[in-house]
Amino acid sequence: MEDPNTDSHGIPEKIEELDSQQPKDFLPPSPPPTDENTSDTDDEKVEIPLPPPTHAPTEVLGIDLKTPDSHVPRDPRLIRLTGVHPFNVEAPLTDLFNEGFLTSPELFYVRNHGAVPQVSDDDIIDWKFTVEGLVEKPLTISLRRLMSEYEQVTCPITLVCAGNRRKEQNMVRKSKGFSWGAAGLSTALFTGVIMADVIREARPTRKARYICMEGADKLPNGFYGTSVKLNWVMDPNRGFMLAYKMNGETLRPDHGRPLRVVIPGQIGGRSVKWLTKLIVTDKPSDNWYHIYDNRVLPTMVSPEESANNPKWWTDDRYAIYDLSPNSAICYPEHEEQLCLAGASNTYRARGYAYSGGGRRITRVEISLDKGKSWRLADIEYAEDRYRETERNLFGGRLDMSWRESCFCWCFWSLELLTNELAEAKDIFVRAMDESMNIQPRDMYWSVLGMMNNPWFRVTIAHEGDYLRFEHPTQPALMPGGWMERVKKAGGNLANGFWGERLEGEDPVVPSEEQAKAISMVKDGLQNAISIDELRKHDKEDQPWFVVSGEVYNGTAFMKEHPGGAQSIISAAGLDSSEEFLAIHSETAKAMMPEYHIGSLDEAAKTALAEGETEIDQSGTPSEKFLNSKAWKKAILHGKRIVSWDTRIFTYKLEHPDQRLGLPVGQHLMVRLRDPATREAVIRSYTPISEITERGFMDMLVKVYFAESGGKGGKMSLAMDALPIGHFIEMKGPIGKFEYIGKGKCLISGTERFIKNFVMICGGSGITPIYQVFRAVIRDAEDKTECIIFDGNRLFEDILCKEELDVLLAGNEHRCKVLHTLTKGPEDWTGLRGRITAKLVQENYTRTDETLVLICGPEAMEKTMHKALLDDGWSDDQLMFF
Ligand SMILES: Nc1nc2c(c(=O)[nH]1)N[C@H]1C(S)=C(S)[C@@H](COP(=O)(O)O)O[C@H]1N2
Ligand SMILES: [Mo]
Predict the structure, then answer these.
(1) Where are the transmembrane segments (predicted)?
(2) How confident is the model over 381-398, as pLDDT tens digits?
(3) For residue 566, is it left (φ>0), alpha (ψ between -120 and 50) or beta?
(4) Antiparallel, parallel or unpaired: β 260-262 and 275-281
(5) Is the CB of 433 under 6 A from ligand 1?
(6) CATH class of 326-503
(7) Does residue 738's CB lie within 6 angstroms of at least one atom of ligand 1?
(8) Predicted pLDDT of residue 682
(9) Which ligand has the minimum distance to the alpha carbon of residue 272?
(10) Which of 96, 271, 278, 295 to mutate to test ligand 1, by most ligand atoms within 8 A of the CB atom?
(11) Residues identified as active-site
(12) Which among 265-274, 555-564, 769-778 has the top mean pLDDT?
């Protein structure tokens, strides 16, 4: 007979009748489900924690519509930690705690490195994964087979991201990771197969030591993957699972639908979602995400050192597996107020604790005097209640009676006297596990900010009749928390005293790092600027912009700005910290105090941070793709390899009729994020596709590969690694030059008529030149004359040669292209050597109506600049891109 809870694929979609008041009524009978007469054994009378009521979101949120996750309905309560996409979220701590022991799938934290793979309902049951590598019998197993040919089990498991509580580390010193609060953990009943059963069937060979796992999510550095030891997988006490259900329903897309690994007691990062491969090996995984994520490097390794020295990342001693003991206070909540007048005599403090490797939390301690004395809290291990029963739950056998490991969080609580709270300055909690591992007093800061577990501290402020409680931080960019307050007051959060100044202690001296940083503010200027004032200056007339909370007036340098006035106007009224800091030199930064006019007030900072979105969300897509005020996402559609180091990337715009919207001669900014840290890399490029092209655009990019010792080009390497289908962000146009046609140019907004162009370029500097050259040639009535000097090293390095030759044909009377090579082949009949002022002079007679366009490597631009000035050209005849 068919199980009534089962849909056509054999997977119960959800136990709809799930009613936490009457648990035994909905439980499906033990497999195989043959009898509607559920046996009413003693066991089933034992009350076990069941999932909280769930309301699966059915609608895709507006904010997700324009992302690759536009197929994933989500709960709007979740706090986004990395902008709109990828989806990395935690629930508000109180909401998470209030749900109780089990978390509903809609509030379960999510950590996605990229887009969520889309699997239709019909395809779920045929999802396949392989077992390969050092095995005698490689396997390909479908979910259908997994569900029918192996023993099915159900077990409660807490997953914790290694980044849980990272915001506290970021407050002390910025790590290479985004800011988790204390809700980066969640608990569910997982149903699936014991991983060892599958591995055993494949018969690992004698050399087998590790199991590498891979997911279906294709990311900038390959598929997500990691590894664990084979030994652990085979150990029944460790409970490694391949799970397809969470709280009795098919896994939701964000959590690995249809199949994921679940590794109890270890950091969440090892529990690979959307599982496609299990590879048995004799070495740990060489997946990028295994190497560069989920590690605790030694504390003295700085972000710079870790970037310069790969050896830190490949040392397996620093990889995290088991979780360490950790705890947090949930009540009092952040910003909770307790009115002393009429308050009850006691207050019950409550929170959670967990440890790793199946180790039980054996004590939780509370201090009201900064750790001088401690008292024991009560601990509730809801997980133990499952050990008293044996039954079928959600189609899997729930039998934990034999297992002593603890895979879940526990709750602690302690009754405190209100009087004591009124006298205390703070509440601390720390937990210890059965191996006597205890949370440390001091933070262990490390580059990735992971496994943060110092004593959790909530401060108590006395405000009249009230006590006000403050947690250390708030997640993401949300302001608030005692750490921020102490830091602003000049406290050194690493002073061993939570940054508070001890009596008689001198004020903090800024660290060397802080001292070295170039000051971009005017000395002594104190002028609070509100959001309304800032917003009044969002146009070309008096543009103000914000960098790191400071406000600048861009009016005075609009004309001289190398990026053109447009780039300042684009930033007007906005926070442009990221772009500004990413593309400006120290010299440019040093000029900033002159334009500094004040600091945003607190409300304005919050408003700016909240309004921060990464994509333009205005309803219908516009006629032009580019928007000078918002980053827009284009999808990598194709890639043509032009030479060993040169590619033409084709990007797809929002709709087939859309134009890029880039005037001739201008550029656009491209932004890519480091997949692990989400740090932005921004560069400007000029596409080579026609400006009239619709729906797509092409970009010619030279890839700067790492040569021995060097690091290569961050952006070009990242672009080259981007998988087809992945997005890239663009914003623009920028640039102070624009070619209107028939000799008419706009330079910083001023019209100028010219008769000839001298175009000097090198390497991929040809791309903006090519745009202008093509515009001149395409217009039969444009009488402007052009001469291109294109310098390269090898013959193979010449870019767009064919395209230039095609354009030139029939136009030789007014246009000329000269290639010069420093390392030309023997049979090269063209020019040799670098481009020099002399070469220009020999081939071209200067007029008053000439404009020189120069684009190439910085060194080349500098030398040419000097040489041309020496040769009698003036700066207003020279245009550098
Ligand atoms: N395929 C894949 N698996 C993955 C990830 C991912 O990005 N891709 N993130 C990992 C990390 S770091 C964590 S903490 C957990 C989060 O699981 P959850 O999103 O279901 O809470 O999934 C892990 N498995
Ligand atoms: Mo994670």
Answers:
(1) 178-199
(2) 999 999 999 999 999 999
(3) alpha
(4) unpaired
(5) no
(6) mainly beta
(7) no
(8) 87
(9) 1
(10) 271
(11) 161, 293-294
(12) 265-274
Q: Which residue has a Cα nearest atom 5 of ligand 1?
A: 112
Architecture category of domain 114-178+186-318 in CATH: Alpha-Beta Complex (3.90)
Containing 870, the helix (H) or strand (E) segment is helix 858-870
Output the CA 260–ligand 1 centroid distance in Å.
9
Tens of pLDDT, residues 283-334: 999 999 999 999 999 999 988 888 888 899 999 999 999 999 999 999 999 9
CATH code that applies to domain 737-880: 3.40.50.80
Residue in 111, 159, 266 to alter for ligand 1 test, most ligand atoms within 8 A of Cβ: 111
Q: Is ligand 1 within 6 A of the CB of residue 269? A: yes
Closest atom of ligand 1 to CA, residue 267: 14
Over residues 203-221, the pLDDT tens digits come to: 999 999 999 999 999 998 8
Q: Over 416-432, what HEC string results?
A: EEHHHHHHCCEEEEEEE
- Chain region(s) in the chain for CATH 3.10.120.10: 528-611
Residues carrying CATH 3.40.50.80, the chain: 737-880
State whether the beta carbon of 255 lies less than 6 angstroms from ligand 1. Answer: yes
Locate 366 and state its tokens.
């509370």
Q: How confident is the model at residue 14 (pLDDT cuts 50, 70, 90)?
A: very low
88-90 and 79-80: which strand pairing? Answer: antiparallel
CATH of domain 528-611: 3.10.120.10
Whole-angstrom distance, CA of residue 209 vs CA of residue 205: 9
What is residue 518's three-state secondary structure?
coil
Ligand 1 neighbourhood includes 266 CB (under 6 angstroms): no
Name the residue type at position 377. A
